[in-house]
Amino acid sequence: MKILHVNIGYPPFIGGSQLFLREVARRSCRRGHEVAAYVSDAAEIEYFWSHSKGRLPPGCETDEGVTVRRFPVRHLPLPPYSYHALRRLVIELSRRPWVSEAILWRWARFTPWLPELEAHLRSANDPCDLVHAWNIPFESLLGPAWRYARSHGIPFIIAPLLHLGEEGSEHVRRFYTMRHQMSLLRDSDAVLALTPIEAEYLVKQGVAAERVHVVGGGVDEARLRRGDAARFRACYRIQRPFVLYLGALHYEKGATYTVQAMAELWQRGYEADLVMIGQPLEHFLAFYHRLPAEQQARCHLLGSVDEESKADALAACEMLLLPSRTESFGLVYLEAWVWGKPVIGARAGAVPAVISEGVNGLLVPFGDTAALVESIAALLDNPAMAQALGAAGQRDVRQRFTWELVEERVEQVYQLVMGGKHAR
Fold first, then answer.
1. How far is the C-alpha of 145 from the C-alpha of 20, rounded, in Å?
2. What is the pLDDT of residues 230-254, one digit of tens each?
3. How many whole angstroms separate alpha carbon 39 and alpha carbon 58?
4. What are the C-alpha distances in Å from 357 to residues 89, 343, 347, 389?
5. Which end of the chain is more exposed for a tag (fewer CB within 10 A), N or C?
6. Do residues 22 and 9 lie in contact, with contact meaning Cβ atoms separated by under 8 Å?
7. Which residues partner with 4 through β-bridges?
8. Which residues partner with 2 through β-bridges?
9. What backbone torsions phi and psi does residue 228 show, to the nearest 5 degrees?
């Protein structure tokens, strides 16, 4: 089977959807499928609106059998903030029933803008057997992929990776549930949800229940178990126990109030430092540089690190924090559980489908610094509880969250939409 994936990025672009795509694509290759991935040349999300941020060379490369083709992001001759202004314009237009979906697609095309990808898909005369698209908030890529699939009469599958935010709030989900986005989901041949929470929401929004498939998430336990705690401490000269934050350093991910919570604990006399691994966005750096020097000294900003250093950090930490409201799953929780470490997440989006409160981790309301302080303190003060939560998470990783299970579920959906004609 010839499978075409379309996503906003592919590693070394760092992000959950990029890692998920790579794992699924590589495993499809091992099954004997011919796999390609069309992505942007962005190396980080801020490149979508800023020339000064990281990009990767456009063109083709091969990753363990996967053909990866990167198409250049083009920037409009407007200030960087215009990207966000255009995005909000589409949201507002989507709320007006008299505005056609064609107009919504026209404006969404520029966030981000990849005209070479559009042109390539329009002119492609060697169709694949199936299109697998990812990441509904970047519909500027998914729309052309959907039209390509429909023009060639081939199945179109999408993993929307919805971020639903807090219950009853539209603050986050409005970027993922605009009218034209939901129409795309309803017209797909199959929709891959990562959790039952996402699946239930999609069905309520009119996606046919028989087309929604929960595939879950996985982790490479063998790779992560190569981590070395002593190597991490020696490399980064960190002697104290530390709490690990792993994710983009962004307000919506909980980075800001994580620092504020740790500052409160330092005032109380707790010894644990904070280690933060992930791409810092400009607004977080501005916040960080305003911190008192003594707080900066306890907050270790490491930026993006390689896989070995991430595994080392997980081996060395006391616990993992990612109190985010923008998660479609949260693969980093699984990565911490590989090492039997307790985790703290936010009671938002899909996270409660992964973290069971008081069973394999703790949940706090997003943005509630006081609740986060008490949760961190509880784990630091009660090593037996921390160990029990981490051990339960480790059992979940081995029983419920493996890439082998995800691979089999995704392959079953592929065969279903293809009518089984490519089954081995």
1. 19
2. 999 999 999 999 999 999 999 999 9
3. 9
4. 38, 10, 9, 9
5. C
6. no
7. 36, 131
8. 34
9. -130, 110
Question: How far apart are alpha carbons 303 and 305 in whole angstroms?
Answer: 6
User: Taking 50 as the threshold, does the pLDDT of residue 424 lie above it?
Assistant: no
Domains 2-218+402-417 and 221-399 share a fold: yes
pTM over 0.85: yes
Tell me what pLDDT residue 276 has.
98
Considering the domain delimited by 2-218+402-417, tell me its CATH architecture.
3-Layer(aba) Sandwich (3.40)
- Provide the token pair at 171: 């603050």
What does the alpha-carbon distance between residue 76 and residue 85 come to, in Å, rounded to a whole number?
Answer: 13
Four-CA torsion 244, 249, 251, 254, nearest 10 degrees: -10
Dist CA 328 CA 130 (whole Å)? 24
Tell me the one-letter amino acid at 149: A
- For the chain, the domains span 2-218+402-417, 221-399
**What's the pLDDT band for 14 if we cut at 50, 70, 90?**
confident
Contacts of residue 395, defined as CB under 8 A and 6 or more positions apart, other chains included, come to: none
Q: Does residue 423 have a pLDDT over 80?
A: no
Report the run of H or E that residue 363 belongs to, with start and end. strand 362-364
Q: 377 and 362 in contact (C-beta within 8 Å)?
A: no
- Specify the pairing of strand 66-71 against strand 273-277: unpaired
Q: Are 244 and 277 in contact (CB under 8 A)?
A: yes
User: Which architecture, in CATH terms, is 221-399?
Assistant: 3-Layer(aba) Sandwich (3.40)
